[in-house]
Amino acid sequence: MPVPRAVFDQIKKLIPPLDGTLHKGQSGRVGVLGGALDYTGAPFFAGFSALRFGADLSHVICSPTAAGAIKSYSPDLIVHPILNENTPSQTVKDELSSLLSRLHVLIVGPGLGREDYMQSYAKMAVSIAKERGMFIVLDADALYMVGKDMSIIKGYRRAVLTPNVVEFKRLSEEVGVDPKTPADARASSVSRKLGGVTVLQKGAKDTISTDSTGEEADLAASHLENADPEFEKAKETLEVDLEGGYKRCGGQGDVLSGSVGTFMAWGKCFEDGAFGDGSIPASRIPFLAAVAGSMVTRTASRIAYKESGRSLVTQDLLPILGKAFAEAFDDTRSEGKL
């Protein structure tokens, strides 16, 4: 089923123009928080995907044990090894506050791990991002964090959760979704339980759902306190079933989180007036970003699989993202054609 024209047109409004009117940084400044001792590939894939997707700047916030490896993968990434378990918590908080003040979106989870100090710093970063009204993507072990304490993100409508099959099942149980709920309604139920947070349920087809009709939705917490409460009550589900590749390798979810995060960064630039007509409400941007990220990532997976087949690895998707973006949105300038 194709993405509805109305949704497609709104997505295209969030794409920054390539006409020389914007300066560096106005096409998105992305932050990825993750990268512990054993996990250096995931934050690289998320951060570098953001650049290939079209973000201007991509920062990786990680532990010192992961920084050297991540820096060696690409000089295009800006790496901040500030998540040190031996550093006083207030010092890390001050550094995070300073860094996040320069970013449009925070992607939390790729390579995060479950060590107490990394989980604690992730929770701290999400709290700071919420205070600043940033858009947030939560993936991988950040979803484990949410399952342990839903208050971290509950009611914050500037967020997208991107669970895979296993993570979605666990999250559904943790938020209290009735097991008898039909499969095609569960993403909406999770969103409602979490107060309207957008859920991107990954699978053979991706299901994107937002349900802010419940009491858990919090306009003030989402920096939407001046919005019309009735207008902000929304219930919408959309399936993206574009053909993807048949090889499922570790890391493709990180590409997706980087892609969704970039669109949310563009959404923040749009909200702040860097470009566009301001016609799309901030509360709708996470839903649109999730749909767009899914479209491009699935398209990239299909193209890369046709080239590499069984030997496909996640790195094969990275140089394909520009081509996939151009195909998904008929954007010839993504391929350098004017």
UniProtKB/TrEMBL annotation:
Q: What are the GO MF terms of this UniProt record?
A: ATP binding; ATP-dependent NAD(P)H-hydrate dehydratase activity
According to its record, what are the GO cellular component terms? Answer: cytoplasm
Instruction: Please tell me where ATP binds in this chain.
Output: 202-206, 244-253
One GO BP:
nicotinamide nucleotide metabolic process
The record's section on Gene3D superfamilies has: 3.40.1190.20
Which UniProt key words apply to this protein?
Answer: ATP-binding, Cytoplasm, Lyase, NAD, NADP, Nucleotide-binding, Phosphoprotein
Q: Which NCBIfam families is this protein grouped with? A: yjeF_cterm
Protein name (database record): ATP-dependent (S)-NAD(P)H-hydrate dehydratase
Recorded source organism is Agrocybe pediades
Phylogenetic classification of the source organism: Eukaryota, Fungi, Dikarya, Basidiomycota, Agaricomycotina
